[in-house]
């Protein structure tokens, strides 16, 4: 029998959110590196998420003591269900590698280099990481990679503290620039991690290339949809909720187009079975966007959001914050590239609102203006330097 661990619903919601997001990141990393080891980490996290979901449902039912309580708890249960479904979608993505469903090499090598990618590494005995604390190593400075979780055997530590000491056998999960992965693995005493080499063309690939382009856009947009959904819950913002709904509608159309191009590509590919993986990936990405849409239903309808839900979203591993560009601040008139947000603050620009229109995943060349509203996601430690860049005091963010 599992040990009883007194937990509160807010902390469990925050952990479940972090767990599902880590599962999605690792699932795509498993595809990128064709790694069964990374897929196995997703499967381990799925077991943890399932238990969290069961416990949260139990607590929510016990906490409903009146009809008004039941209405608010129904909203929490909806979000819990969507978090579970996001985790299930990540599980399905990870299975593509283990079941060898087939991933076109064109997909692996057409994925644009992200500014940040997830990485997993095992600490080897006698390595530079063995027996040292995260504070001593200072991985964000040494490699640009930020620790987001540590697994010691079956025990997980999310958002590990600086004093956490790494031991041989620990599995470390990090987020950061792709160029930091090689240095990180060297510090851990692990062999280099190589991406699969591209295969030579087996015929006309124009249809497949179009399908791959559509999938990559689906992947990126689905991740934005989840970020916007959590932001809509945190800020009770009906405008953001409508953006999520619009994204989900767009995802449906994109999936139809992708399926068409995959079917056309099958006639020109020697092994059509290798196209199965991209169809599974598209289904999983669409599911993630569907979950984001379901999450914001309460905001769309003007229903009251339980404070526990807002608190959990605001206190998770990756915080979401909305900041206006103060006229005359350092950010006013600068491009995102010039601000070096990822390296200076550890925060990532999710979307920018200007004149009532949102731009998702703005490019590095996007130039900010006074009055722009920017949604960021990232580590809580980045809030203070971020606020300073945008002409605000940290106290303003807590109000």
TrEMBL record:
The keyword Iron-sulfur does not apply. Keywords: Ion channel, Ion transport, Transport. Residues 106-190, 306-392 form the RCK C-terminal domain. The keyword Ion transport applies. PROSITE patterns: RCK_C. It comes from the Bacteria. Pfam families: PhoU (PF01895), TrkA_C (PF02080). GO terms for biological process: potassium ion transport. One of its GO terms (molecular function) is monoatomic cation transmembrane transporter activity. PANTHER family: K(+)_H(+) ANTIPORTER SUBUNIT KHTT (PTHR30445). This is Potassium channel protein. It comes from Rubrobacter xylanophilus.
């Amino acid at each position: 029998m599992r040990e009883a661990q007194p937990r509160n619903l807010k902390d469990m919601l925050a952990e479940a959110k972090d767990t599902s997001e880590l599962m999605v990141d690792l699932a795509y990393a498993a595809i990128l590196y064709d790694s069964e080891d990374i897929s196995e980490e997703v499967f381990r996290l799925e077991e943890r998420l399932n238990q969290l979901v069961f416990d949260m449902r139990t607590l929510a039912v016990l906490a409903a003591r009146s009809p008004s309580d039941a209405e608010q708890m129904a909203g929490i249960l909806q979000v819990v269900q969507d978090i579970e479904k996001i985790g299930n979608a990540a599980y399905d993505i990870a299975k593509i590698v283990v079941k060898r469903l087939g991933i076109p090499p064109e997909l692996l090598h057409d994925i644009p280099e992200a500014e940040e990618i997830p990485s997993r590494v095992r600490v080897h005995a006698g390595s530079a990481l063995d027996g040292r604390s995260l504070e001593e190593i200072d991985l964000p400075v040494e490699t640009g990679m930020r620790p987001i979780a540590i697994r010691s055997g079956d025990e997980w530590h999310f958002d590990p503290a600086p004093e956490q000491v790494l031991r041989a056998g620990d599995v470390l999960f990090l987020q950061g620039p792709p160029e930091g992965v090689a240095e990180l693995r060297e510090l851990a005493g692990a062999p280099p991690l190589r991406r699969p080499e591209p295969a030579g063309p087996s015929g006309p690939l124009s249809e497949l290339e179009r399908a791959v382009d559509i999938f990559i856009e689906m992947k990126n947009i689905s991740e934005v949809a989840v970020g916007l959904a959590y932001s809509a819950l945190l800020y009770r913002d009906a405008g953001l909720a409508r953006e999520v709904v619009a994204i989900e509608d767009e995802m449906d159309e994109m999936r139809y187009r992708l399926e068409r191009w995959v079917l056309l590509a099958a006639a020109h590919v020697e092994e059509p079975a290798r196209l199965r993986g991209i169809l599974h990936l598209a289904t999983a990405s669409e599911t993630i966007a569907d979950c984001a849409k379901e999450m914001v239903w309460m905001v769309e309808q003007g229903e009251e959001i339980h404070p526990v839900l807002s608190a959990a979203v605001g206190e998770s591993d990756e915080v979401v914050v909305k900041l206006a560009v103060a006229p005359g601040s350092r950010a006013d008139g600068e491009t995102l590239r010039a601000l070096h947000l990822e390296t200076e603050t550890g925060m990532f620009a999710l979307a920018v609102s200007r004149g009532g229109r949102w731009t998702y995943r703005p490019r590095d060349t996007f130039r900010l203006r006074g009055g722009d509203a920017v949604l960021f996601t990232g580590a809580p430690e980045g809030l203070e330097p971020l606020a300073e860049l945008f002409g605000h005091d940290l106290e303003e963010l807590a109000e």
